[in-house]
Amino acid sequence: GIRVGDINHPPVIKSINGQAVVPGEPLSLSASEGQLFIFNVVVEDPDNNTTSTYYSEPFNSQGKWDIPFDIADSSHPSVTKLIKVTASDRIATVTQDVQLMVNNTNRAPVPQLTLSRYTVLKNETITITLTASDPDNEPLQFSIKKDGAEFDSGNLNSGSSYSTTTSFADEGNH
Fold it and tell me: How many Å apart are CA 84 and CA 97, to the nearest integer?
């Protein structure tokens, strides 16, 4: 016999962020730390049913993720997250895997140089203190120059200080 009835066809994810979706093949996208990443998903339903789109963690229900700065680092310059994008017409669902490569964003360190005195006499010793912090908490290197010539350098951990002393034999601005 012939069966007549309402047959539902699953929705189809056509594209994600402008890239055509090939069912069964993961889609690759990239982003950077500190970026607000927003999915733009085009879904079509052959039956013209209303569809909803869902995203796996860490994305919110609107397909947005404010990517923090601690995903990747200098030793792991990129990290790939597997995200599942699901479309549903409340009867059938389809899921698309997205490989989101998150790239490290190296933020500039914040140095602070202070002197024990800013006006000194010839051959009077002053203390120079260098403090630096790195928002990515990575090791830092420093170089201190006097009159254009390097006289001290080394490594400095984020949040720590380094002090040295010097004097000037000549009058003038140094």
Answer: 5
